[in-house]
Every structure is written in C-alpha cells, then in structure tokens.
Q: What sequence folds into this?
C-alpha cells in the first residue's frame, strides 16, 4: 500500500500539470465541466510548449514553426501563459528572427548594389551567391523569393570576348574616363574567365596591363600633389610655397588632376583666402627631441645626482589631449597635464626637472628657457609619507605659505600650475 502511494506521488511530481486547480472563472462549473476545463487548459499549454520545442533555427521550417508557436502562445490567457515553461526559448528565437532578417536585408542590398546592365553585375552576383551559400536553410528563408531566384539560377556574363577586346583596343589615356574604362575592361575580362576559359588575341591583354600601369602612375602623381596641398599652412607657408604646389598641380594631366581630392584647398590659398607670412617672418619650425616623453604613456625620468629630468615636445604636430606620466626611483611621480592646457604659446622642447634634497622638493618646468604655466595642475605624487604630513611653498616674495595638496590612500599629491619649491612638513 505504501508503494502505491509513493508511485502516485511520483506521478504527480513528474506531471506538474496534474496539480493544477481550475481558475476562479471555472469555480461555478459542474464537476464534469470543471474536469473538461482543466483538461483543455492543460492541453493548450502543452500544445504551445510542444510547438516551441519543434522550432529549429537552422532548418527551412524555422519561420513557419516560429509563427505557429507565436500564434498559439498569443491565444493563451494570461494565466495560461505563466505555465509555458520554455517561453525563454521562444523569446530567443524571436531575437534570432530579427538577426536573420537583418542578414537577409544585407544580402539583398549587396545584390541590388549593381545594376543588371553594369559590367560588374556578373561578378557582384557571384560574390553575393558565395555569401548566400554560407547561410543555413533558416537564414536563406528570409531572403526574398526574387533575390533567391537570381542567386540560385544559372547566370552568364553580360559581355563577350569581342566586346572585351574592343574595349581594350579603344582605351585612351587622355580621356577623363580612362581609369573607369580600364577598370570596366578588367572587370569584364575577369567575369569571362570565371565563367569559361578565355583566349584573347596576341597583344590585347598586354595592352590592358600597360593601361593599368598608367593608372597606377596617375594615382602616385596625384597623391604627391595631394600631400603637398595638405602640407600648406596659413601660419608657415609663403606665397612661394603656394606657387610651387600650384605649379605641381598644373603639371598633372587632366586625368591626374581629377584624382586630387583637396584641390579646392589649393584654390583657397591661390585666391588669397589666407594672409601668408613673408619669407623673412616665417615662424621657424621647432627642433624637437627624439627622446621626449610620450603623451598618454608612462616615461621614466633620467637621474643625475638628486635631480630627475625629462623632455616634452611642444608643437602643433604633437598630441595635446593626453597627460604625461613621469616616474622616478624615489617613490615620486610627476604628472604633466595635456598640452592644450599650456598657457605659453611657444613651440619647442619643454624641460622638466624635479630635485629632492631631504624634505625639500623643487619642480622646474621651462619652455625655451621660460617658465611655463598651465591652466590645469601639475602634480607631484609622493608615496610613503606619514599620513599627517603637509607642504609649504615659497611665494613670489620668498615667504613660506601652505601648498595645495590632497591625500589619496598612502599618497600625498602636491598640485601646482607653475614651477616651485615645496617643503615637506612631517607632523
């Protein structure tokens, strides 16, 4: 008898739906009707659970099976929905559907990116087909029927050997369309070769190769002028410099000139948009250091007796948004703020020196032998001082005044916008 009770209990545990009691809406039903209500209720929920289990996101049935499961789930009452134990799986499949639709849209966008009349159409279809063939059956089902027809049908290049030969023979490097014509001829020849073995008349392909070499030379010549225009500066370029770049541009062929994207910048200089310096007052380019600290990185300062030294390059060409982290071997780190906070307008090499003698620390920062000032704080970070230590500094009159500092853990951080001498007071 005990075994029978145990089996009955196991049955109830294995089939949770049998433990269900009818909702209040079924309270007034007869016993027979109530039994039918509960049975239908469990059947509805079980049906949805099974429909969700039938979904496979790699097969062609993914889309219809997902739609069927969603339809059945949405038909449940709110109470019934609470008993759908694999709803998270259904939700995940819906997210997968979004991803598949996006992928299908990308494939169709590429397929439609080249007109069917273009010489590049055949190549584009083959490339898109290769992509399409990497998809599983479920993913392919979201690609439109018209696109699938193109991607799965036999296709031939919309050109011929005679057309390609004719295009190559008509190539003319003096035409503004020369580069496009060369690219089109190569695209058509490649399309033919991917479709079948192609044999061109003697000398025809060599003519195409020679044309492609001219295209490469045109691009190199245009790039040199583009770089020369980019190097022009209202601050440092003279009228002579502008004239040299103008002459270089005019020496290009019309085809090469079409390849210079910043020609209108040159036009601005030629037409006098900027007031340029004369030859005598051109600002000298600063001589920068090869061993300067790198912005945004940690640099070890060099040591000579009690003094640590470092250099920082200050110029338009330098990164001015990152701070400099200068380290020493005396549990002391110097932080120099980003150069955009530098008040001095000169360029050159900034020399940073910090000297520690006993309880006295001297920080010196100079640019072209002139003291520097920042809008932000330089920081001297010291570790291992007594927790109640404080600092004094000498003001312009030589008087000792309290220095600005903060404490973070075991670090004391002196803050200053200018050079100065600081005295450690160990309280």
A:
């Amino acid at each position: 008898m005990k075994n029978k009770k145990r089996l009955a209990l196991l049955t109830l545990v294995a089939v949770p739906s049998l433990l269900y009691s009818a909702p209040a809406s079924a309270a007034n039903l007869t016993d027979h009707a109530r039994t039918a209500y509960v049975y239908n209720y469990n059947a509805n929920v079980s049906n949805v659970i099974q429909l969700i289990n039938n979904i496979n996101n790699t097969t062609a049935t993914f889309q219809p099976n997902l739609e069927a499961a969603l339809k059945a789930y949405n038909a449940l009452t709110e109470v019934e929905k609470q008993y759908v134990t694999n709803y998270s799986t259904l939700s995940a499949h819906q997210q997968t559907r979004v991803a598949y639709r996006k992928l299908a849209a990308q494939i169709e966008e590429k397929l439609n990116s080249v007109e069917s009349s273009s010489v590049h159409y055949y190549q584009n279809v083959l490339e898109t087909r290769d992509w399409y063939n990497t998809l599983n059956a479920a993913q392919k089902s979201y690609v439109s029927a018209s696109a699938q027809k193109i991607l799965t049908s036999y296709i031939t290049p919309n050109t011929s050997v005679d057309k390609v030969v004719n295009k190559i023979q008509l190539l003319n490097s003096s035409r503004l369309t020369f580069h496009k014509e060369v690219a089109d001829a190569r695209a058509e020849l490649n399309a033919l070769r991917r479709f079948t073995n192609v044999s061109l008349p003697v000398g025809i392909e060599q003519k195409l190769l020679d044309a492609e070499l001219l295209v490469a030379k045109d691009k190199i010549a245009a790039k040199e002028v583009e770089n020369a225009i980019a190097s022009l500066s209202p601050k440092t370029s003279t009228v002579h410099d502008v004239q040299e770049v103008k002459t270089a541009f005019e020496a290009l062929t019309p085809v090469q000139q079409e390849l210079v994207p910043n020609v209108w910048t040159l036009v601005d200089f030629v037409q006098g948009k900027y007031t340029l310096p004369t030859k005598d007052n051109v600002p000298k380019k600063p001589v920068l250091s090869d061993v300067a600290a790198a912005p945004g990185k940690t640099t070890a300062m060099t040591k000579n007796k009690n003094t640590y030294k470092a250099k920082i390059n200050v110029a338009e060409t330098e990164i001015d948004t990152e701070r400099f982290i200068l380290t020493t071997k005396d549990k002391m780190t110097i932080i120099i703020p980003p150069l955009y906070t530098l008040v001095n307008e000169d360029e050159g090499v900034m020399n940073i020196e910090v000297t520690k003698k006993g309880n006295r620390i001297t920080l010196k920062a100079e640019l072209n032998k002139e003291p520097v000032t920042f809008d932000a704080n330089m920081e001297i970070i010291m570790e291992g001082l007594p927790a109640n230590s404080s600092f004094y500094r000498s003001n312009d009159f030589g008087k000792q005044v309290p220095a600005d500092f903060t404490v973070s853990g075991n670090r004391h951080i002196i803050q200053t916008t200018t050079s100065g001498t600081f005295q450690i007071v160990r309280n």
User: Anything to note?
Assistant: Residues 204-230 form the longest helix (27 residues).
